[in-house]
Amino acid sequence: MAAGASYGDLRRLDRDAITPRRVFDTVCAMRREKLPDPKVTGNAGSFFKNPIVGADTANKILLRHPQAPHYPQPDGQIKLAAGWLIDQCNLKGYRHGGAAVHEKQALVLINQGHATGADVVSLARHVRQSVADKFDVWLEPEVRFIGAKGEVDAVGALS
What we know:
This protein is an alpha+beta fold. The chain has two domains: about 1-35, no CATH class; about 35-159, Alpha-Beta Complex (Uridine Diphospho-n-acetylenolpyruvylglucosamine Reductase, domain 1), CATH 3.90.78.10. The protein has helices spanning about 20-35, 55-65, 80-90, 115-135, 155-159; strands at about 45, 50-55, 70, 80, 95, 100, 110, 145, 150. It has a four-stranded antiparallel sheet. Strand 6 and strand 7 (about 110) form a beta hairpin.
């Protein structure tokens, strides 16, 4: 079984009977369980990228939180789970105007009804600042920001 097959419910698949279709179906089921359906609740999926940090920064975090998900990179840096960092800031369910951090998956920002673009930007800014304050890690948006005149610098929009 591939390394990715150690994730979530993929661990429960029979190694001798694993097929691409079973992996696909299992991943889709896991996502349906944790992620809001965009047809029902407006969202853009994962709002922030998983940050890649230097070993020193990662080690400081791992000393305080040894259970933190982390993934060593070939260049010696460490990828951290943005959703976990956000969750550790107790932001699940946190609201700003009509925008909120999803209650089941902290990496997803949702429209709880009539959220404005300003609500989403303000919420994302708060999430980003909270993670930076607690972990000294700045999250980078994964979504693209589109303004009246086209794409806007996402990091600049949150600064």
